[in-house]
Amino acid sequence: MSDSDNNRLYELLPAVYRIRDAEKGEPLRSLLSIIEEQAEAIRLDIDGLYRDWFIETCADWVVPYIGDMVGNRPLHEIKQLRRRDVAKTIYYRRRKGTAAMLEEMARDVTGWGAHVVEFFQLLGWTQNLNHLRRKPAEPAEPPSPLSVDCVGTVNLRSRDTLDCLDGPFDIISHNVDIRPITTHEGWYNIRKIGFFLWRLNPYLLSNVPPRLLAGHPGFCTFSRLGNRAPLFTEPLREAVSHALIGETQVPGPIRPLAFERDLDAYRKEPPAEPGNSDYYGPDRSVSIVKDGKKVPPENIIGMDLCQLGRPPAGRIAVDVKNGLLSFAEGEEPSDPNDLSKFRVTCTYGFSADMGGGPYERRRDMVEPETEVTLIDVAKGTAVDTIQKALARWSTAGKPHCVITVRDNGVYGGNVDIALPEDGWLALQAANGVWPNIRLVGVSSLSVAVGTATLVLDGFLIEGAFEMSGGLDITVQHCTIVPGRMLKFSGKAVYPDRDSLIVGAVSEDLAVAIRKSILGPIRMPADSRGLSLEDSIVQALPQGDGELDFAIAGNDAGTEPGPPVHVIRSTIVGAVFVKEMVMASEALFTRRVTVQRQQQDCVRFSYVPAGSLTPRRYRCQPDLALEAESERLKRDLTAAETDLILARLEPQFTSMRYGEPAYAQLGPSCAPEIRTGAEDGAEMGAFCSLKQPQREANLRIRLEEYLPFGLEAGFIYVT
Length: 718
Fold this sequence. Notes:
The protein is α/β, with parallel strands linked by helices. Strands 18-20-23-26-29-27-24-21 form an eight-stranded parallel barrel. The longest helix has 25 residues, at about 25-50.
């Protein structure tokens, strides 16, 4: 509060009293200042009480009370989903039972993309002359499909309709399927209604340089790592709030035929807003800038570029399924390495805000102090490389400094950092950007004397770091690519290489990794410690039958690693460490060996059979083995034990970095793993997403809003 605000009561006094008060040293002014402070506190409290009347502005603790007033059944709290659900309680009840309402409710209580399909509407039956079904009740996308596409036998002339077969936007009539509804079968029956759910999140990455394919001029990948990866839809807002959504409004991979149809429709009838089709344009999921000019949709065609074909003259080919880009012969960009002249905007998919990306992360960023030196890095400025920023920092005497990269550019060369004693340096990306650092081999991070602090935040890093000295290193919201680089096929270039290596041993060396993805870590047992939180560490298989160590003192796994904390993380590969201070809600895919087992604890985690760890509390597969033995009232046989161990082994949708569903637990994964965390969430790096709670929220709401007699099924698209 300013001095003027603190003296509002004093200013209301007649001037004669203020003059006399000034003559006596202003005791009255001091008294009224104290009264004003208390009056301001009362005013703020009254304002807070007024805000608590409304669900949009009330404090978090008030939300359940407002919900109780409207008869809202409590849900699992996931970010702001509970507040949204309470706010729409009466809104839901007024539209109770309609497909559009169920669809909107599913999005609100889960936070996932959702589309509802009434499967009984898609059953094939003999037409009644008094009730002809000429067209679908809710067309998926304009232009509306013809009735011949929706009724009777399959119309083989409609490529787009056939392409949607057995998907969330299928409109073809089907025979009755009497099996129970699951993700893959039992859909089409009189009582069935399906909830198609998209669990992956879309991330719009703006103004990034595509990667040229070596040996193939004119070909690029949208991925800066040079691998094939599908492009995702950045969902558009619903055109009509009371209608079912279409393909452009769900966060899934772009369907190639839908992309081609969208471009054809744009050429035939350009929209009122020029420059944007449903998928392509400056404000859409994909766009291209070539030679400093925005490429309009009429110059884009959809093609399958797996065979590295070329488009006709005057066109640019885009393969949304594989994330590829091709130019006509002789029409390649004049300067493909200039970000100001050649860049793309694309949308990729991933499970969570992890490993860096254009997501909100200001909460975790370094807050620069007044005495800290600030250096900005961006393409096209005086400081256009990280090396120049480090040189400027070194010339200034290596003070406490924050170096911030402001764009999505590619920054090459080694990033060798030598900190002074008691030094402090933060190398971070600005909020909302995801720069790519391409190291040449291994870069060094060191301090010669004493201790120092280093923070790496928000980067996509190809390469590895060697650490030495008394460093306290924090790596957060970063990806240090497992295998260091990716091939066009998506495989790692160097599957046997590590991401973090310790050179000169120091007892003061400590590494903290938060919300990051990286390859193997090699740290000696004498280091101060390693902390992992909401992260993925992956050792790639070598194929020689030996254990691939994710964390150890050396590559062979003959030396133990340092004391470790593992919180809500997935470790793909074997672990050999000196001490496991704490492991909670972690997922270890291979054998874990801890030298000191007399103290500390592993809790609510999956630890493979044969592991040597400190005491375990509610861990799998131990818990399942004990439960089965207690049920049978005897010891389990070897065959029964092997059967349980095989069932509980974690199953993943994909374990290749660069694919959208990387490290996501698969639908066939055992429920003990998918709900084994302390709060009932899944074990591993995506524990904080609370996927089981989201599904439970939807089931709770369906008990109230699903029409009587219908059977709902959850179908996970991603």
